[in-house]
# Entry
Amino acid sequence: MGLESMKGMLAKAGKEQYGVGAFNTVDYASTKAAVTAAEELAAPIIIQTSVKTVQLWGHATVVTWMKDIAANSPVPVALHLDHCKDPDFIRQCIDAGWTSVMIDASAKPFEENLAITRQVFEMADAAGVGLEAELGEIGGVEDDKSVADEDAYLADPDKAEMFCKDLPLAVFAPAIGTAHGVYKGEPKIAFDRLEEIAKRTGLPIALHGGTGLSDDVFKRCIALGCAKVNISTQLKYTFIDSFVNYHQDHQAYEPVKVLTAQMEAIRKTVVDYIRLFGSEGKGK
# Structure
């Protein structure tokens, strides 16, 4: 199939009320494992890369492995840039071959956030690339972005409607009470606010801070409009723990065996999430 924008797959998911998993991978092996899981379940998938990951490997390298993996894949695969604050870096990713990008200017005042988002939208739309934008401050830690609990705030429905008016984003990411990283307590999700924002914007909603949410919370958020569901922290834990545990259990110094075990653990994790989000069979 090759790489495609997430805009179409999320529009479909929003209408049919299922979630498309957006998984943060860090190398060829973890990406291959995630896409393999999607292929097994005939599900669409979004592969997300952090700015750090792109800086580590380089734009051309990431796109090369993504094109290789997606070229003969029977399911829709999008390559998405997660949480980027720099329009110039976003342009580099678009030029290199990313099919979806996120501008995160949520720390800026409303008008400045909107102005930056519009600027990036024009750039992305001209290239046929889907855009995600954020309003409100999602707490927790995500790569270089850290927002203390006391500084996090929910997106205002009035401002959300104003923000998205005449701005056909692929997906909108309002802060609704979730947090990046590991939850320290029971997350307090503003379901009523999520429902209102989804209705008033008419856009698919992105659920950030997915790791650690209960199955019921996931299902309720998806039913209320969350078509894109981000999973990052859990894959980081799986990536490290599976590698370390296999080595400790087998005292193996054969890299291929350890990597194979790591890929299998990631594949199983992604399979479980895809089934939970209801996207199995939706990538046919």
